[in-house]
Amino acid sequence: MKLKFIFLTLIIILSLFCVSAFAAEGDYIVILKEEHASNADVLSNLEPIIPEERMYLLKDSSKLDFITTFAEHIEEDLPVDVSFPDPDPMLFTAPEDASYSRQWNHTLINLPAVFNMETYGNDVRVAVIDSGCNVNHPDLKDRVLTGKSYITGTTDVTDNVGHGTHVSGIIAATMNDVGICGVSPKAKIVPLKCFDTGATTTIAMLSQAINDAVDVYDCKVINMSWGMSYNYSSVRTALNHAFEKGAILVASSGNAENGASPDAISYPAYYTTVFSVASVTSSGVRASYSYYNDGVTVAAPGSGIYSAYKTGYGSMSGTSQAAPHVAGLAALALSINPNLSPNDFAVILTSTCTDKGDEGYDTHYGYGLVNAEAMAEKVIDTIPLYVSPINTAYGKSAFYIENNSDTEINATSIFARYEDSGLSGVNALDISLSKGEGKRIEADFLYSKHFWWKSLQNPVPIVIKSIVNEE
Predict the structure, then answer these.
(1) Which of 432, 250, 210 is nearest to 333 (CA)?
(2) Over the stretch 373-392, which tens digit does the pLDDT of each residue have?
(3) Is residue 2 one of the residues assigned to a domain?
């Protein structure tokens, strides 16, 4: 998760060497006083970062004294050393479908049961603020939307490190008979590149990426598999803005390395608006490197996680790998109920965890190990009559329906296939669901339309779902 904290002298020197590529000396982040937010003379000297929060960038230090009069807060846009991994992956150039068997992490959090509910995070946008992404990777090319590099100011998010691709694969690798599948294999990844081969970025880049995730790219989930030792107010302001816009914020609790004690604090995970995710091994026990503190929210698999990489696939370890499990679960939850707020999701996720460590909440595991099946069931319970998206694969169509109302539901499901403007196949099935009952409904062909009728004698549709794209 948090890009592994790097304390090696060589890496620190490398980070300092990279400063000129990220921040010019004399840049300042300015938050204007509310009464001066529309002052044209002041704004003419500033570049926008998050205008809604009155946050701007001052690149001309000679104007600092003038701007100070109108500012609520000013801080120098210093280069930030973030915890970044030193990847040591096991690469495979010819992945096979059987690679799914390497994903013990799915079984540990009861994810396969969720797939039986025909929910896969369908089309939920997840911002991955990281080192970019291999957008042509066979397991990600259908999942990745156009993002941005804040280093070059372009849409080229080429991942020279591999970390961002690995994180993206854990979240949303496609269920396509190639390699692996993600926690939410039909979610959409928006890669926002703030890191490259050096483990240095700037406060302004991080703040802008967080803001753009919600205001430009309409992301409902933000994954931050990196960490900082200092509480930067500009990053906190950006995260508060994203939280208020309804985004679910996920970050890694942090990694202790080189003999450092893991009882430390890392940002953004320690912020109250952010889910701080600790790491467990395949046995479900807290990984020795995983930070523990009173900000930890939950735990997820993080050691030896097999996922996509720069080329091929590889295994990596860290809380960087734990966080995207929770980001993926957030996408799953939102694909079931798009109206969930971050607070709604927090209550559901923490109340469905498998308790670990000391009874109840503890600083090592938070509320426990995430449980995908229990979480999904509780989200479905928030909807009186849940009907999943209709999914297609292997020449079949299927959806899941569950009745959480107080009365029995009786309906007829009709899958219809049209070819050459003619009806070529029909699958009709009467459905009776008692309170709390759920069923998976399947047709042995790829449908063109689906109708769900309350009664064939009184054909008023309860739900009409039209053509969907086959994946």
Answers:
(1) 250
(2) 999 999 999 998 888 888 88
(3) no
Distance, in Å, from the CA atom of 307 to the CA atom of 289, rounded to the nearest integer, reads 20
Active site residue: 320, 388, 397, 413, which one? 320
- Residue pair 49/204 in contact by the 8 Å Cβ criterion: yes
Q: Does 341 map to a domain?
A: yes
Q: What is the phi/psi pair of residue 279, to 5°?
A: -110, 140
CATH number at residue 124: 3.40.50.200
Do the strands 298-301 and 409-419 form a parallel or antiparallel pair, or are they unpaired?
unpaired
Do 375 and 410 lie in one domain? The reply is no
**228 three-class SS:** strand
Residues in the chain: 471
Query: 448: domain CATH number?
Result: 2.60.40
- Under 8 Å between Cβ of 292 and 25: no
Distance separating alpha carbons of residues 39 and 41, to the nearest angstrom: 6
Task: Considering only CA atoms, give the Rg of the chain.
Answer: 24
The half-sphere exposure of 63 on its side-chain side, counting CA atoms within 13 A, is 17
Q: Which residue has the tokens 């509480």?
A: 231
Where do the DSSP E strands lie in 348-405?
A: 385-387, 391-393, 396-403
Surface-to-core class of residue 416, CB atoms within 10 Å of its CB (0-12 exposed, 13-18 middle, 19+ buried): middle
pLDDT in tens, 312-335: 999 999 999 999 999 999 999 999
Contacts of 340 (CB under 8 A, 6+ apart): 333, 334, 348, 379, 382
Same domain, 242 and 329: yes
Active site residue 177: no
Domain that holds residue 224: 97-380
Per the residue annotation, which of 81, 99, 131, 163 is the catalytic one? 163
418 has which bridge partners? 423
| DSSP labels, 258-294 | TT--S----BTTTSTTEEEEEEE-TTSPBPTTB--ST
Q: Is 362 a catalytic residue?
A: no
Please tell me whether residues 151 and 187 are part of one structural domain: yes
For residue 220, give both structure tokens: 């409902």
Each residue of 440-460: pLDDT tens digit? Answer: 888 888 887 777 665 444 444
- Do 441 and 332 share a domain, yes or no? no
Instruction: Average the pLDDT over 283-294 and give the result.
Output: 95
Q: Is 130 a catalytic residue?
A: yes
Set 130, 139, 159, 212: catalytic member: 130
* Partners of 149 in beta bridges: 154, 193
